[in-house]
Write a structure and sequence with these properties.
Blueprint: H1 10-27, H2 31-36, E1 38-47, E2 60-64, H3 66-78, E3 89-102, E4 106-119, E5 122-135, E6 142-150
Parallel strand pairs: 1-6
Antiparallel strand pairs: 1-2, 3-4, 4-5, 5-6
Family: Belongs to the bacterial ring-hydroxylating dioxygenase beta subunit family.
GO molecular function: dioxygenase activity
Pfam family, one: Ring_hydroxyl_B
């Protein structure tokens, strides 16, 4: 990063706003809206290796293109999958934004996310280092890439039943 990128840059603010909106949509379990927040070519990835950028050749907990996101949303909404039955109540806190790249058409930002969940009388917390590439468009900004690097990704992770 050769230039100092400002959080007052309207492009950066638009990207941060979209990331916060995504967190709110997921906490509301509005999965259909969540699905529309992504470009058709977008990937949603939760890698196991915390240092990899080669998601296609690495083992991932989630590696969703458009088709897989659609299938995931169907499972979350149909009520028959274990992840959909008595879905957890969640609250996401997304903060500590840093800017990787800014152009007139896209912004790549990193952040920290703490996801608190309550299900079946139990609380759980998941921490993740997030990367979002946001495509800027006058017709509505969209997510082109979301990578959630769980801080415990190399340990056994139980089925969360919600999207990170």
């Amino acid at each position: 990063m050769t230039e100092v990128l400002s959080f007052t840059d309207p492009r950066v603010l638009r990207a941060i706003q979209l990331v916060w909106q995504e967190a709110a949509v997921l906490d509301a379990k509005d999965y259909r809206t969540w699905e529309t927040m992504y470009t058709d070519e977008a990937l949603y990835v939760i890698p196991i290796d915390p240092d990899t950028d080669d998601f296609e050749s690495s083992l991932n907990m989630v590696y969703d293109d458009k088709r897989m996101r659609e299938l995931r949303v169907q499972r979350m909404m149909q009520g028959y999958a274990p992840s959909a039955v008595a879905a957890a109540r969640t609250v996401r806190i997304v903060s500590r934004f840093t800017v990787d790249e800014v152009s007139d058409t896209s912004v790549t930002i990193k952040s920290a996310q703490i996801l608190n969940a309550f299900k079946r009388d139990k609380f759980s917390t998941i921490g993740a280092e997030m990367t979002h590439k946001v495509v800027l468009d006058d017709d509505g900004d969209k997510i082109a890439l979301k990578v959630a690097r769980l801080i415990d990704s190399e340990d056994a992770v139980s089925a969360s039943g919600y999207l990170v």
